[in-house]
């Protein structure tokens, strides 16, 4: 194929069609008519010798070939956008930019607490709009409507850029009056009542089924492997709530160690390693290819990474 004969606008059409999964929405996004977008899709199909988008009961569904092409095309367009935009320096001292960040309660309580503290001295006019996982969809991040997502992700779209911020082990938090802290074994752990806390990924959460062990996460999966199950009294998505309950009640919170360290200096709290093996978790930062070359975004990613390394 001679690249000189290819209309590069078709790559723009492809990128928007794959994100919108709709000829009508893609046409509206690019301010062109629906027939023009339909013609563009026809030309794309001829160009790649593949249907690319197929109508199913779930709407327009991309083919495997389209999914393979999507991150490549997005990267090409991102590089072109970067080259064609004027070079603009980002000055954090004077910038009044608002960064929208989706963060889990875990990330907000550990990493973002320090980030906000740092920004107060080096970027006093920058605003952080911190959103919960339930506020945001993959589509919002992919479109650049949300600058960054910080969470534990089981899976991310190929089009996203991502960076591992840290790995974290687990700790058990309980009141110093809880009788099991003086003889903390697997048997005493299982005899106690527990607090479950978690919220990963994107989108609106659903209620937890205490009987569906395979869906409860790392701690309960590992207990299940050794044929055991803990008695969970409270399910919450907020680490501070879990920590407060563990301190005030005879309940045990098993959670990532960096969250547990929030109470490390509290004499009313005891923090112990779990009496069984739990794999480490990974906290990641993810963002859209649309923002990969943005000077302000590059600066913020560097600040996040530096603070994560220090922690």
How would you summarize this macromolecular structure in one to three sentences?
The chain is α/β, with parallel strands linked by helices. The chain is built from 11 helices and 12 strands. It is elongated.
Kindly describe this structure:
Helix 1 crosses helix 2 (23-30). With 311 residues, this protein is of the alpha/beta class. It has helices at 9-20, 23-30, 34-48, 64-84, 105-122, 138-142, 186-191, 218-225, 239-248, 257-260, 295-310; strands spanning 53-56, 59-62, 98-103, 127-131, 148-151, 161-168, 170-175, 193-197, 231-236, 251-256, 269-272, 281-287. The model has no long low-confidence stretch (mean pLDDT 88). The protein has a 5-stranded mixed beta sheet with strand order 4-3-5-12-6, covered by helices on one side. A 5-stranded mixed beta sheet has the order 9-8-10-7-11. It has 11 helices and 12 strands. It starts with 8 loop residues before the first helix and ends with a helix. It folds into 3 domains: 3-84, Orthogonal Bundle (Arc Repressor Mutant, subunit A), CATH 1.10.10; 98-167 and 282-310, D-Maltodextrin-Binding Protein, domain 2, CATH 3.40.190; 170-205 and 214-279, D-Maltodextrin-Binding Protein, domain 2 (3-Layer(aba) Sandwich), CATH 3.40.190.
